[in-house]
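Bug #77: duplicate submission created two jobs. Keeping one. Sequence:
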Amino acid sequence: MAGAGTIKVIFINRDGTRTEAEGKPGDRLLEVAQAAGMPLEGTCEGQMACSTCHVIVGRDWFGKLPPASPDEEDMLDLAASLAATSRLSCQILLTEALDGIEVKIPRESRDMQGY
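Kept job's structure:
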């Protein structure tokens, strides 16, 4: 569990290593991921005009999220390495119910920030 007022997030990297990070209730998962050095670009800055922040949410956690909107579903159709529990990290707001959430970075994702 995270400290008072923070939400623990566990990222599972492409090589299987785990990176723990913390955010606050209301933070976007994308911003927590970027602060932790995860290779998620988020080109459209949360406007759902791309799929560069695609993540795979752990099965135990997926049901705790609100359903994806039709616009998010449309963008996910364009994501590489799509899975049944795929979501756009820009659309996931942290809540206390998500403390300890596990999120996998897809094997194929684009990060143009470093180029």
